[in-house]
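Q: My labmate handed me this sequence with no annotations at all. I'd like to see what the chain might look like in three dimensions before we decide whether it's worth expressing. Could you predict it?
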Amino acid sequence: MTSLGGTDLVDWNLAVSTATRFARQGPEVSRDEARAVVAELRAHATAAEGHVRAYTRLDSGPLDTPVLVVDRPGWIKANVAGFREVLQPLMARMRERRSASPAGGMLTAVGGKVTGVEVGMLLSFLSSRVLGQYETFAPATTGLPAGGPGARAGRLLLVAPNIVQVERELDVRPHDFRLWVCLHEETHRTQFTAVPWLRDHLESEIQAFLAEADVDPATLVERVRQAFGALTGRNGQDAARETVPEEPVVAPAEENGGLGIVDLVQTPRQREILERLTAVMSLLEGHADHVMDAVGPDVVPSVGEIREKFTRRRETGAGRLDRALRRLLGLDAKLRQYKDGERFVRTVVERTGMDGFNKVWTSPNTLPTKDEIADPERWLARVHGHRDLPGDGAA
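A: Here is what I predict for the chain of 395 residues:
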């Protein structure tokens, strides 16, 4: 295992220890209850694979991406490893610029710890909110295996304490809710394992976005600190302790009109790339939401009640700190992605059937643009050639 520390702009070891220290305790369960939850989630993940494949008509072949049922510290460690993997090129550039500066050593000692603490505080906040996550860029670490190289690399995480906490708060049937969550996350795993080019395309876009960042290390550290301080209005330790409602999160996204992490280092070129990334994430999230609800009536008896309560919970009010962190992390945009993406998928499936919708996975050129997500008719006209398309009844 490679150390998470080192001379990076972010002290990753400190990020892990900070996030783990301030992550809130999960719901109270006995040891036997915990074992039963883990066993049921694993069983549901296996069952969800068949349900998702049958509905989506996407065949990912034999899967070598593991399903891991984790606690909050486990989710934190996995995500830090993933962040470090994706950010390696940017960090390498930052190290080069830092080595040319007389203050480079001071930045290593101070700046890395500052950003390590800030990243850790944000992860502590998120660690109690994420129900599940397909890690597309997941290096294998001790206790956290990942899939094979290339397009099949990755792992599926199910955060057991958060699933239990939300099902209790919603007062829904645990068996049904756990399968419902697994349907969503398994859809993400199927997307990346059945569409070989998707992972490489997404990675290419992210790296192109990061390559446009031309901010010196000291400035970047200061911007992160200013963003976090301005939005929370308090120090990170207080932020981590405040109680806020949980909700599922997959990845940060842009929030129009608000300051998010991605706004810290944007250029015009980055905005173009970010629009494409936003469209892809909207598609992936909307597809997963559509599948979980479409499959639900056949295998999740109480899916209607679950969706109603879950949607109401997503949209209910939040406190000042919660709103600030939503803006910083782009979580409000995430909720719009679920809605806009699901509406796009539902419209296309209704018009063309599942086989017609699956043309979206043909190549990067058939992915919807941000405008097409908002107006599915544009995508239908561009990809299918005309607007009057009868459905094939395969939805």
